[in-house]
């Protein structure tokens, strides 16, 4: 069995419930409205919600003659505010098995595609500061879109900061598994209710049903 010195966790879908598709759509529509677009095309909203690229975002904004940075500032701000409201109203919460991480003796961190400031909110709101030694999320900039997983950018930063040599990354998506392997890490795929029936095209190092299995994996 591999000996790990570092365990990194995704946030949405692993530590906390992921934002709903409807919540993300509402925030995106609100952003279009704020910048003067009353009837954005549904497929443009879907592209943004499902994960656009820098190049494609420029094309979408050009279709409405929008300044890309102005639109994206509105979208990221409103998206984050919508997430805060869901947490504060208890309609989105932390998974109960996150307590199992306290039994992990290795250095632990968070690496997420969500905003860095949203991860900071999650840490404070759920009192997780003592559980994790560092956390990395995405800056609320257009350029940060190209650093999202499966890009290893934020995984590399976290591992470098923590000084880990043998790391494990715990996620709930195929992109998490791919990013981990590309970063030279082993991977854990957690089958939460939202991804129970997902078929992966790549094989994770481990597959689990809840975080209570992590302490056993890392020994």
From TrEMBL:
One of its GO terms (biological process) is DNA repair. It comes from the Archaea. It holds the Pfam family HAD_2. GO terms for molecular function: phosphoglycolate phosphatase activity. NCBIfam families: HAD-SF-IA-v1. Belongs to the HAD-like hydrolase superfamily. This is Haloacid dehalogenase superfamily, subfamily IA, variant 1 with third motif having Dx(3-4)D or Dx(3-4)E.
